[in-house]
UniProtKB/TrEMBL annotation:
It comes from the Bacteria. InterPro entries: Hexapep, Trimer_LpxA-like_sf. This is N-acetyltransferase. It holds the Pfam family Hexapep.
């Protein structure tokens, strides 16, 4: 964990997790084993980032956001190893674009959010059909054959 990160009271950062410079975690957040929180990422209060999730800068997570195991929030709209002229691409050759996940949203295990994606709209967990990517059984519908995703 960087000494330049701001960690809210009651927050926990587990083994092998990396929290980079200028990251801001709200109160009572949990960052799981092996997770990565990038430089300048902002997390609201009561967020959970599960094991091996990758939250690249400049992502923004609202209060009460759940990021499932191995989720990736990317930051490069057009990822490439080299520039058009064949030279190695450096940090100065592209502009990071963040992913915004709003209050109460849940992003399910192994989901990938592309740079600039802000579809993660939540409501604090008061309804089902708010968990993106997990394809779990919807408890409100009660059928194992029906899954829940935001917007469906």
């Amino acid at each position: 964990m960087s000494a330049d990160a701001v960690i809210g009271d009651g927050s926990s950062i587990w083994h092998l997790a990396q929290v980079r410079e200028r990251a801001q975690l709200g109160v009572n957040c949990i960052v799981g084993r092996g997770a990565y929180i990038g430089t300048g990422v902002v997390m609201g209060d009561n967020c959970k980032v599960q094991n091996y999730a990758l939250v690249y800068e400049p992502a923004r997570l609202g209060d009460g956001v759940f990021i499932g195991p191995a989720v990736v929030l990317t930051n490069d709209t057009y990822p490439r190893a080299i520039n058009a002229d064949g030279t190695i691409k450096s940090a100065h050759d592209w502009e990071p674009v963040g992913v915004t996940i709003e209050k109460g949203a849940a992003i399910g295990a192994r989901d990938v959010r592309r740079a600039g994606d802000d579809r993660g709209v939540g409501d604090g967990g008061s309804r089902c059909c708010r968990c993106e990517g997990c394809a779990g059984v919807c408890p409100r519908r009660g059928s194992a054959s029906q899954t829940h995703r935001l917007g469906r």
